[in-house]
Amino acid sequence: MPKIFSREWIVSYRNEMWLLILVAHLFQRNVNSGHMPTITVDPEAFMNISEIIQHKGYPCEEYEVLTEDGYILSVNRIPQGLIQLKTGPRPVVLLQHGLLGDASNWISNLPNNSLGFILADAGFDVWLGNSRGNTWSRKHKTLSIDQDEFWAFSYDEMARFDLPAVINFILQKTGQEKIYYVGYSQGTTMGFIAFSTMPELAQKIKIYFALAPIATIKYAKSPGTKFLLLPDMMIKGLFGQREFLYQTRFLRQFVIYLCGQVIMDQICSNIMLLLGGFNANNMNMSRANVYVAHTPSGTSVQNILHWSQAVNSGELRAFDWGSETKNLEKGNQPTPIRYKVRDMTVPTAMWTGGQDWLSNPDDVRTLLSEVTNLIYHKNIPEWAHVDFIWGLDAPHRMYNEIIHLMKQEDTSLSRGSISVSL
User: Fold this and answer.
1) What's the CA gap between 221 and 226, in Å, rounded?
2) What values do phi and psi take at 14, rounded to 5?
3) Which of 33, 46, 57, 136 is in Cβ range 3.0-4.6 Å of 130 for a Cys bridge?
């Protein structure tokens, strides 16, 4: 079969054509009614990460980081805030997004409501990671995104290769010995795996901040987890073997247009919240077109299959390659490695949500019992999954606490202890 008619191409083409038909119908109906009620689209919906940062008036830098296995990751940096609070080196913090997200998750709201900007204004050197396979990290030293081999990864490789590469790059670039790590959702999964299996990497982390932490999803109530219960072959049949939910430029433009219609904006907003739980009153819905323009940002089908295995096993373990030989090659044992969060000694602070359908309270309860160096935990009863990155009340309910812990740690380093008082 010619390359242009590959299964992945057909699936992508079919999805885009259905969207085009839907938008055309919407357009025709509105034209026939004599009006086109639309919501003004924020220009940030069409910007990349660096452009969004600059649009807000902040300095920014962008780098490409090469992983040990050849992936080239885009990393964004906000070296300082709008006002220079002090001269000399600033404490460094790395923010890592979740599944289907990208670095824009930390800067999608207004500056006084986005953790990336808030940290920069508080005097921190802020770095924003992009996991392999998302919109901004689709390069490899030797492989093309048109090859199956490029997409043969999951959060295993993100923890094993992406995090060490990015963290070591940041340390080399800044001259620092340690950084703060803030993970959200799958970003926490990467942290739990990396910091429990690589002690030398864990020693480079001052404090690990876990937002909506996920180690297991045994009790997750999200509709998405029902989809993950489908057999592997059915998931592959629906989405192929390469990328999962990547927004092409065509698709992105029409999603922005579709969700910009007054009659559709509420539907788009609810779809965004569907996977993680509803707390719509805590969202700035005027930013919805920026959210949908950048999310979903794509990942690999194999990563989705890994999460499918996690739903079925109820454990935090390595990807099962389907054969003892392949598992031995990848993990030096015939069955998938079971990761042990107990082995992680990094000081850890966690924030959880009582209405989070992905980071379910029952899974969180198990996780809390396994974190051996938990310095702080706060549960916010009404929060769902996206409140941690987009919640209107996130600054005073969580972000200020994160900054307090960071500054307390910096002042107590000479004493060699952490005293938590929030």
Assistant:
1) 8
2) -60, -45
3) 136
Where does the pLDDT of residue 53 fall: very low under 50, low under 70, confident under 90, or very high at 90 and above?
very high
Q: Give the tens place of pLDDT for each residue, 198-211.
A: 999 999 999 999 99
Q: What is the mean pLDDT of residues 249-269?
A: 67
Query: What mean pLDDT, rounded, does the chain reach?
Result: 87
Residue 116 CB burial class (10 angstroms; 0-12, 13-18, ≥19): buried
Look at 160-164, 326-330, 337-341, 376-380 and tell me which has the smallest mean pLDDT.
326-330
Task: Using alpha carbons, list the distances in angstroms from residue 52 to 114, 151, 226, 377, 391.
Answer: 12, 28, 35, 32, 19
- Residues 6 or more apart from 103 whose CB is under 8 A from it? 49, 74, 76, 95, 97, 128, 129, 130, 136
Please check whether residue 402 is in contact with residue 420, taking contact to mean a CB–CB distance below 8 angstroms: no
> pLDDT tens digits, residue range 125-159?
999 999 999 999 999 999 999 999 999 999 999 99
Q: State yes or no: pLDDT of 5 exceeds 70.
A: no
